[in-house]
Write a structure and sequence with these properties.
Layout lengths: L37 H9 L5 H5 L5 E4 L14 E15 L6 E8 L4 E7 L4 H11 L2 E10 L5 E4 L2 E5 L11 E4 L8 H15 L9 H6 L5 H9 L4 H33 L9 H11 L6 H14 L6 E6 L5 H14 L3 E5 L3 H15 L6 E4 L5 H13 L4 E4 L13 E6 L7 H8 L6 E6 L5 H6 L5 E5 L9 E6 L4 H13 L3 E5 L7 H19 L5 E4 L5 H12 L5 E4 L12 E6 L7 H8 L9 E6 L5 H12 L3 H12 L1 H4 L2 H4 L13 H17 L9 H9 L1 H7 L3
Parallel strand pairs: 4-6, 9-14, 9-15, 10-12, 10-13, 11-12, 13-14, 16-21, 17-19, 17-20, 18-19, 20-21
Antiparallel strand pairs: 1-8, 2-3, 2-5, 3-4, 5-6, 5-7
Helix pairs in contact: 6-7, 7-23, 7-25, 9-10, 11-17, 19-20, 24-25
The chain binds adenosine-5'-diphosphate and magnesium ion.
The site of magnesium ion has 5 residues, from helix 10.
């Protein structure tokens, strides 16, 4: 869902001829443009450029200031420079390696001579020789170096021939350099986009209301798009980009503001009135500890939401081990007390099973029956579970995404809890919601979410943050060790196990296949049992095991029938065994930061001093950074920010399924300030004109409907 979305423009079906000026629209196919025939259109289509509007949103990758070329005589080695020179000679050298060719080209810019070096592009020779013969000029961009006393040398330069018509688009101006593809040159693409601007500029409308433009000192849209491509100055280019980024974020935020407004003011929901004192009493009775202040606050937020008569959409953010499960338990007790069913969805079977065990222990004394619904149940059991859910006999249902599959019908679902929300997509959240009539929704996430993402992905949710860890937790000591130090690590483990603690060993990540991962885990477990710790009890847990097997292993580890659990990342989320106080992560540099933080969160859950040992000999800069960050900090929010910097938002939140929009020009990390500004403005606007019915919001309304994102957001009911 990009805003505005490339995909939302219809693809051209009409033949591009006598289109008269009046009917021109930005969703015309690229073939309406001068110089774009079927072949070029096909190449453009490969880059997802189907319409004129797409072309106008094709953002230059960078710009070259060709009003100021560097002189060859003044260039310093190591400088990225743009040059303008005449081709004077070209030659190819073979090297001792067969078939390896180096093409060298000499250019002269009047101040000196420079040498371009190209590798393995033999066809360039003819081209440059012809240019040399005709005395052609080229523009060159690249990193300068100097070898010995020789001329300035540029390897693998980007270059472009300058036409002798003095080509106005390519020289003496700030020139856009676009992302492009084989078969279409920069110059060609530049001309096409220029033509698009020439013929369609008058069609560009302004969706931002005048007071927003004024208040945020934004350029109008037409000027911005022109300066995005052919800027009058670098300052204009910056201003144009800022305006377009603002617009992109603003459209998203207006959609989110609108959705939140609908949720909080228009969608009626079951009113669940809670006797908070009684609830607190019940909670104290069933739980072996006193809840933290932050847990109580989250519970009170929930109680307030669900008694309001409006549907609740609340996000509980809390670092690993902060005790989110108890908050969910409390919420589900409220729903059940009021005569509704509650469902809780977890991303893995092991976690769902663990939740079921906890819930049974806590709630069955209060005569609240718990149902487990996971994919690996036998057909017969599944059938029985479904019947109990449909009849209302099961009051609380815990499960995996099996819960949202067809055939699961609730009698009266009043609350849907989604644990580890970042593992699910927005669609799955909605699917669970659809299992009831406007159930209240509580989503929980352990990955602290950088604020930028909270503003973007969860912008329509109310948030409660659990800042506080339960009392008595000791910081987890994190050490980074190399493979050669294994013996040292094992002897430390041995000491801890002798003191009565338990340990996790996490297998190296094998991404190729589940099967290989399973084999690696099995081999490691055998090695640990037979060669390292023959006197300890070693268990194995991986994703390929049947669900009863997994349950059995977890039960034994929890009951301390096992000392060491060798496991794959199946233990990454949620697993809770407070007596385990050390986790060793093999080849830790293969894991991402968020994942390492989650894995580390498996220890430090009780009163014992805990350790996380990262076994790693990283080979990349990235890997080293990740290890250092882990050793340095235990603050999940900081780790999340670092992770976002290293990997980018797309990778963290698999874009499509998570509902993280794809932006065509904005970057939520780089442009977080603009996002903030856009968000505040959008929420104010919706507060004053919830249906965008004022005349000055007409074009904004239309723009939102046009972009798929806005369309979805505006039509939620
Ligand atoms: P997460 O937020 O990661 O889901 P859990 O809900 O699994 O955390 O809780 C982590 C551990 O802390 C569990 O063993 C849980 O029983 C325990 N716990 C939760 N709340 C408290 C509390 N207020 N005091 C002491 N221990 C608590
Ligand atoms: Mg949890």
């Amino acid at each position: 869902m990009s805003t505005p979305s490339k995909g939302s423009f219809r693809h051209p079906t009409t033949i591009p001829d006598e289109k008269n000026h009046a009917s021109r629209a930005l969703d015309d196919g690229v073939q309406f443009l001068k110089g774009v025939g079927p072949t070029v259109a096909q190449i453009l289509a490969k880059m997802n450029l189907h319409t004129v509007g797409d072309l106008l949103r094709h953002v230059p990758r960078r710009y070259e200031d060709r009003t100021r070329f560097r002189r060859l005589s003044e260039i310093m080695p190591g400088e990225m420079a743009t040059l303008h020179g005449r081709v004077i000679a070209a030659d190819t050298q073979g090297t001792s390696r067969k078939n390896f060719q180096i093409t060298k080209v000499l250019i002269d810019d009047g101040s000196g001579i420079g040498q371009l070096v190209f590798f393995q592009q033999p066809y360039l020779l003819r081209q440059f020789q012809e240019m040399a013969h005709a005395g052609r000029w080229i523009v060159v961009y690249g990193m300068a170096k100097r070898s010995g006393y020789g001329p300035v040398e540029i390897e693998r330069a980007e270059w472009e021939e300058v036409g002798d018509d003095g080509d106005a688009l390519s020289t003496n101006r700030i020139v856009p350099i676009y992302p492009t593809t084989e078969g279409i040159s920069q110059k060609r693409l530049r001309r096409i986009i220029y033509a698009a601007l020439q013929s369609y500029e008058s069609r560009i409308e302004e969706p931002l209301p005048p007071d927003v433009l004024l208040k945020h000192r934004l350029l109008d849209r037409r000027t911005s798009i022109r300066n995005l491509h052919f800027p009058d100055s670098l300052a204009m280019m910056e201003a144009a980009r800022r305006r377009l980024i603002f617009e992109e974020f603003f459209l998203l935020q207006v959609g989110l503001a609108r959705r939140r407004k609908i949720n909080t003011h228009e969608i009626r929901a079951h009113r669940i009135v809670v006797d908070v004192d009684r609830l607190k009493e019940d909670l104290r009775r069933i739980s072996s500890f006193e809840l933290t202040g932050a847990q109580w606050r989250a519970i009170e937020d929930i109680a307030k939401d669900i008694s309001s008569g409006r549907v609740m959409n609340r996000l509980i953010q809390g670092d690993v081990g902060s005790g989110k499960t108890m908050v969910a338990v409390a919420a589900m007790m409220m729903a059940v007390e009021a005569g509704f069913q509650a469902a809780m969805m977890a991303p893995t079977e092991i976690l769902a099973q663990q939740h079921a065990i906890v819930l049974k222990r806590l709630l069955e004394p209060l005569s609240i029956p718990i149902e487990l619904s996971i994919g690996s149940l036998r057909a017969k059991e599944k059938e029985l579970a479904r019947t109990r859910i449909a009849s209302g006999e099961s009051r609380i249902v815990v499960g995996t995404h099996a819960l949202i599959q067809e055939g699961v019908e609730f009698q009266r679902l009043g609350l849907a809890v989604i644990d580890e929300q970042h593992r699910f997509g927005v669609l799955q959240r909605q699917a669970l919601q659809k299992k009831g009539e406007q159930p209240h929704v509580l989503v929980m996430t352990a990955t602290p979410i950088p604020r930028t993402l909270t503003l973007t992905v969860y912008g329509d949710l109310d948030t409660s943050i659990i800042h506080e860890l339960p009392p008595g937790r000791k910081p987890i000591k994190t050490h980074w060790k190399r493979a050669e130090q294994a013996a040292e690590v094992y002897s430390a483990m041995q000491r801890l196990i002798h003191q009565g603690r338990q340990a996790y060993i996490v297998c190296p990540l094998v991404e190729e296949s589940e099967k290989l991962q399973m084999k690696a885990a099995t081999r490691l477990a055998e090695h640990i049992q037979q060669e390292v710790f023959p006197h300890f009890r070693v268990g194995l847990l991986h994703g390929q095991m049947r669900s009863e097997e997994k349950e059995e292993v977890m039960r034994r580890f929890k009951a301390h029938d096992l000392d060491i659990l060798v496991a794959t990342t199946v233990i990454e989320v949620g697993i809770d065994v407070p007596n385990a106080s050390v986790i060793v992560i093999e080849d830790a540099d293969r894991f991402g930061l968020a994942q390492l933080h989650q894995l580390r969160g498996r220890v430090g859950r009780g009163e014992h001093a805990s350790y996380c040992i990262l076994m790693a000999s990283p080979r990349t800069e990235d890997g080293i950074t990740r290890m250092s960050v882990m050793v340095e900090t235990q603050d999940g929010f900081r780790i999340a920010e670092e992770d976002l910097k290293l990997r980018g938002p797309g990778e963290i939140f698999g874009t499509r399924q998570s509902g993280l929009p794809e932006f065509y020009i904005g970057d939520i990390v780089r442009d977080v300030q603009i996002m903030d500004e856009a968000r505040r403005t959008a929420f104010e606007l919706i507060e004053n004109d919830p249906n965008l019915s004022l005349p000055e919001h007409r074009l904004l309304h239309r723009e939102l409907q046009r972009s798929r994102a806005g369309f979805e957001l505006i039509h939620v009911s």
